[in-house]
Predict the 3D structure of the following.
Amino acid sequence: MGPRHPAQALRRHQHGASRLLSSPVSSCSADALLPQAIRAFFALLSLLPHDPGVLRELAPLLASTDQYPRATQLLLSAFEHYRALVRIVTPASAALLNTYGYADLETLADFLLAQREYAEAVRVVRQGVRWLQGREREGGWDEAQDDREYDEERKVRPGWETSAMGFEDAALYELDVRLRSRLGLARLGLGMLDEAQVRPSSSSSALEPLPPDGVLTLAHPQRHFDIVTSEDVAEFPELFGAIGDAYFARRMSDEALNVYLQLTDNEEVRRLSLPRTSQTLAD
């Protein structure tokens, strides 16, 4: 006899769809099964709109078939859905989020970064973290053109004395290093070098893309990448690699090399398979 509760049946079908790709079949067969798996998860999503569990399975499948805009729209819709459903996140209301959390913000930011939607990635990270921290009413932070909301110290930026909105008198708010790396990558994509944390060098002149006015913004460094790369490289090799790759893609070879060397100089990380670009630059 099958499960009596609809949720149990849905979970069973979800697991079945997952097994389509995890079963021991050839890569050719797995590729052939992708459309079937995608259809299965979309069927689940029609029954469980915005469900984080379904989206966590579906988004990588859409990425593997280059359907980035489609996946991004689904993830953005879920983000806005849960923000509207739970305006103020508290321990009592968190259950209504249906497990939606910081990891889902990471995934959404990754899809936005992959499509060079840097400004939207900044918005999602800043507003999303604020919301999950129960600070949705603190919308005044959106007036800040930089990321001082998540500074690790107040009253250190040049000109802080004239800062509007009382930003520098606010409490300090934690930003997970994984999300900070995404925020830094978005700032780098926008050409805000000091906000991402990189000093312009001779190799930086080839940075692409530039802001619409062609001018690189040199605000006080929030030091996103400084903070990320101060972590244990063996614990977060993927974050170091993403930063190095972002520099390398923008022909910022000196900056990329500095990050790649942190990877190759670590004995534990050397046992892992490093990106070919990092191995080449560090040799």
Remarks:
- The first helix runs from residue 6 to 22.
- The chain is about 55% helix and 0% strand.
- Residues 201-283 form one domain.
- Residues 1-13, 20-27, 199-222 have pLDDT under 50 and may be disordered.
